[in-house]
Request: fold
Amino acid sequence: MHSLSKEFFLFTFFPAWTLFYFVESLIGQHWQTCGHWFNSVNCTTVQSGNFTNSSVSSSEEFFNNYILAKSPGIDVMTDLNWKLVGALAASWLIVVLALIKGIQSSGKV
Reply:
């Protein structure tokens, strides 16, 4: 794959994660607290200050277990995270619409 196409492909993930976080922040900021289905027993919040060597922050668990839905290993296949797929599709739609409209016309006020 050409380097430019890799970069274009990667930069669509950042707006997708941004859209995902934006929608989740409207619903509720689940990354600030522990006790959700995606949190482990080692979950801790910044406010609690109870950090040990095995502690994992609630925001890190939100990203890894909820947004990315990481599997335990490469040999374990899990279902697609349809919310993230939808955010990625919306991100691609925004990019395509921006390209169709054109760079010159999008800068006019």
User: Anything to note?
Assistant: The longest strand covers residues 43-44. The longest helix spans residues 82-101. The beta strands are 43-44, 56-57. The CA atoms of residues 43 and 56 lie 5 Å apart.
